Amino acid sequence: MREQLFAKKPLSLLLEEMKGENRLRRVLGPVQLTSLGVGAIIGTGIFVLTGQAAHDKTGPALMLSFVAAGVACIFAALCYAEFASMVPVAGSAYTYAYATLGELMAWIIGWDLVLEYAVGSATVAHGWSHYFQDFIGIFGLHLPAALTKAPFDYDPHLGHIVGTGTVLDLPAILITFLVTAILVKGIRESATFNATIVGLKVLIVFFVIIVGAFYVKPENWHPFAPYGLSGISFFGHTLFGQTGKGGEPLGMLAGAATIFFAYIGFDSVSTHAEEAKKPQRDVPIGIIASLILCTVLYIAVAAVLTGMVPYDKLSIDAPVSDAFRQVGLPWAQFLISIGAVAGITSVLLVMMLSQPRVLLAMARDGLIPKSFFGAVHERFRTPWKSTILTGLFVATLSAFLPLRILAELVNIGTLLAFVIVCAAVLIMRRTNPDAERPFRAPLVPLTPVLGILTCLLLMFSLPAENWLRLVVWLLIGFAIYFGYGRRHSVLANRKAADAASEAA
């Protein structure tokens, strides 16, 4: 059993699988891949999480939070780029872990990616819902109160969960179903649709930066770090920095952990390596270009928003459009709401596009039922069954769970994925030093070690209950693996068959 748990999938076998009839269609170039990355990064981070993080945890020091999170991402992105160029198949960090750390660790990271993409999609759907309601509110239209948000939320001022008096978030459900239908249709159509939306929202982001700069009041940046520049805790015990009423850490690093979710777009680029025309070249370009571009834009938007409006007056639900409303620019509120609705739609599209491809990779390995999760549509060449299931799961979460809980749950899953990828690069350099690496992460082992340390630092800056939720999620995953995956593992069965033939 031990041998199976730590059995590694050979690179030759990974590359061989790409030749089968169930492989995906190679239609994405560097511009489309970069667009997919930007599509996932620019959206909820700028249009939603900026308000929550600045209001609750950082103040104007949110600018430094984006720098800290961006630095951690750069180390992880370089490691992702090396693996994506070596193994241009679906699966992202799951596939990389299988090739370096063994089957059990691959299962853990694959199950963790479900947490990252599916729960992340639900978070994004919430953000879309808030801006959609803000947009129609400009015209005096309002949904019934019972259908506007999740039935409960976490109040940082009280330090506990409170009821909202609503039933569910209807707009979040509807946009999830619409995106699911688009994704079933095909990757080419999805990427083209996404590229169009990305162009629109990048223009809106530049509009926010340029126009908003004229309304910045430097006094709003004082105090710059009302909650401090730290915010590090260890399983619920704050080591450095202030503590909120619910026991959560406050400060610049705590804010970086909160908004880290905004950066996972470059991760999604690697899940589409099997659909890239020239993956060894195009995937690293898409990962690094999208990360650098979006980090700069995030810092600029954070500076403008906290300069336009005092941090404690920022809206939690729709901070960007509301900031322009507060300075007397209702016409700008209209444009920003349109851009936010379109922009967050593309984030949702990319994240829901990524999830089924991770499930596809796991199904190919027999760890989950291949007849369902490995099914590729004969005409559209998309993993259509798992796409529909993902849509149903996302719709359910977004209807009933609040933004704050979903965002923090995604962050800890994402950070864990990055830690494992950085560790995998160290292992692969030692175990397969002669493997072809079209892109090599620089300064190894320094780069992956710094990636591990910075991501762990941010993980410990999250509230303690997120660790509990992560443990519960992983325990559910272990139950599935030991109940189904271990017995149906393609790699284990192949090795058993080879051993039997040798014995005969």
Keywords:
504 residues; mainly alpha; Amino acid/polyamine transporter I; two-stranded antiparallel ribbon; 20 helices; 6 strands; 67% helix; 4% strand
Written account of the structure:
The chain is mainly alpha-helical and 504 residues long. It has one domain: Amino acid/polyamine transporter I. Helix content is 67%, strand content 4%. The protein has helices spanning 2-5, 11-17, 30-41, 44-58, 62-86, 93-100, 103-137, 170-185, 187-213, 252-259, 265-270, 279-308, 319-326, 330-364, 370-373, 384-400, 403-431, 446-459, 464-488, 490-503; strands spanning 152-155, 160-163, 232-234, 237-240, 242-243, 249-250. Strands 1-2 form a two-stranded antiparallel ribbon. Helix 3 packs parallel to helix 12, helix 4 crosses helix 12 and helix 7 crosses helix 19 (464-488). It is globular.
Indicate the topology.
Blueprint: H1 2-5, H2 11-17, H3 30-41, H4 44-58, H5 62-86, H6 93-100, H7 103-137, E1 152-155, E2 160-163, H8 170-185, H9 187-213, E3 232-234, E4 237-240, E5 242-243, E6 249-250, H10 252-259, H11 265-270, H12 279-308, H13 319-326, H14 330-364, H15 370-373, H16 384-400, H17 403-431, H18 446-459, H19 464-488, H20 490-503
Antiparallel strand pairs: 1-2, 3-4, 5-6
Helix pairs in contact: 3-9, 3-12, 3-14, 4-10, 4-12, 5-10, 5-12, 5-17, 5-18, 6-7, 6-17, 7-8, 7-14, 7-16, 7-17, 7-19, 8-14, 8-16, 9-12, 9-14, 13-14, 14-16, 17-18, 17-19
Average pLDDT metric: 84
Give the strand order of the largest sheet, numbering strands 1, 2, ... along the chain: 1-2
Q: What's the architecture in CATH terms?
A: Up-down Bundle
Could you say which structural class the secondary elements and strand pairing correspond to?
A: mainly alpha
